[in-house]
């Protein structure tokens, strides 16, 4: 990696693609007040939008991405977007999130690396934030999204939808800004991060930090980024994102090509995990991976609110909860527990998939039906 040629993060002067950039300030503050103390000045949020906002500003839908996603929820890949839209089949004219009917907004999360303020962006002193970037929580991320809504003059979202880390933010919107959410779709997440989820995130963070190239987080402008640690972290994460059944069916104990796993070769599943790890290093900043992973570990809608049950009981939005039957990272019992604490009777929609947690990205027909049910309830 060099300071001018990296694809790991978006920088001013790079091709913007479909992004818009909102320069945001918190009224009466020098920056965004953070839950753990201090403020974050000079806040920029990158977002993409589809459809048309109606005269009453009442048809806006907020779509929230997961850990390694970004604002590019719909549309093809290209010079400005390393991947195609992560929910591309769900967003468009006549789709589950119908852009003939709704004004759809997808922001890059606070702490990310695709245009929104994060560790790779420039601090007020003109240098990258790097190791000085403050620790964030999910609530901080939603506070930034609320400022974006203010900027867009959207007082109340017709709907908010998201899975995994996006689902965490959906819940925080519902609990922290109840008057600003009409309907919500929460996929593949629980009311708080479990010990198992914290453990998996923490080990991935250690893998990044143990890479000698990490340099304490101040590797910008240096000869390389901690891509080896990042690749290992992603490989670890990928085990939790997919299911045991898929691995058994797809790979079993088969070797990779003509390699000998009992010699110097690899099993096919090892090759797959290595590939997934290296694939991410081509498009995602390790510091953002750390920042967002630790924000996910902070997820707890009940913190300071009398516990999760008390917090969820105060939600006024119409909430639809969905989970994936093969999800071993966010298993169905977490969605069932979440739904049991919402006001009224709530059934959990079960998405049938062999792909584990990643089913919320892969099973677009089933997920589209969930999202359509949320918006058309």
Your description of this structure?
- This protein is an alpha/beta fold and 377 residues long.
- It folds into 2 domains: 20-192 and 300-375, Rossmann fold (3-Layer(aba) Sandwich); 198-295, Rna Polymerase Sigma Factor, Chain: A.
- It contains 11 helices and 12 strands.
- The strands form 3 sheets. An 8-stranded mixed β-sheet has the order 1-4-8-5-9-10-11-12, with helices on both faces. Strands 2-3 form a two-stranded antiparallel ribbon.
- Helix 1 (138-151) crosses helix 2.
- It starts with 19 loop residues before the first strand and ends with a helix.
Salient structural properties:
alpha/beta; disordered N terminus; 2 domains; 14% strand; 11 helices; 377 residues; Rossmann fold; single chain; eight-stranded mixed β-sheet; Rna Polymerase Sigma Factor, Chain: A; two-stranded antiparallel sheet
Summarize the structure.
The chain is 32% helix and 14% strand. The protein is of the alpha/beta class and 377 residues long.
